[in-house]
Specification:
Length: 181
């Protein structure tokens, strides 16, 4: 029997709506294909409900996952805090953009995005990124919401262009948009 080994240093983008199964797919894919992996969490725990969610996610992942929590400087985390692993799972890019937008301005978001895209193009290790697909819903009512949707959509497009694989998760089912298995 031939053992399947995924390409080293691949970039995978996993998109989907809320509760679409994108994070679960990314976790299972990583555990199935890699030996040493790290979860780079971007969520900020600003209230009890979010703290409870984070604890549930940590418990579900178990002890086999290394963890780095970084809400804004994920490029720096990839460069300095994610060594010694085969794969890094970043969950979630959309939350990361929200963190920057709420703590900075649009110009800073573009700078952070450029740094991330440059780092991802170096392919130092496999990186699996989870992001919300924001273009399938209604047009947001407020300026900030429309700005956020536009920035997130552009980032998803730029990462998809770099990615080896792009998966859209719908109702827990992975649909390969690029680089199918």
């Amino acid at each position: 029997m031939i053992n399947y080994a995924p390409p080293k240093n691949e970039l995978i983008l996993v998109l989907g709506g809320a509760r679409s199964g994108k994070s679960s797919w990314a976790l299972h894919y990583t555990e199935k294909h890699y030996n040493k992996y790290l979860f780079l969490a971007t969520a900020e725990t600003l209230d009890q409900e979010m703290k409870d969610r984070v604890q549930l996610h940590k418990a579900a992942r178990g002890q086999k996952w290394q963890l780095v929590e970084e809400s804004i400087n994920i490029t720096e985390a990839l460069q300095r805090r994610c060594s010694g692993v085969d794969a890094v799972l970043i969950d979630c890019l959309t939350v990361w953009l929200s963190n920057i937008l709420l703590n900075s301005d649009e110009d800073h978001i573009l700078g952070y995005q450029d740094l991330l895209l440059k780092e991802l193009s170096k392919r130092r290790r496999t990186v699996i990124m989870v992001a919300n697909e924001v273009g399938s819903g209604i047009v947001p009512e407020y300026v900030l919401g429309r700005k956020f949707r536009d920035i997130a959509g552009t980032l998803n497009q730029n990462i998809a262009a770099l990615a080896d694989k792009v998966i859209l998760s719908v109702a827990g089912l992975p649909i390969y948009l690029k680089g199918g298995e």
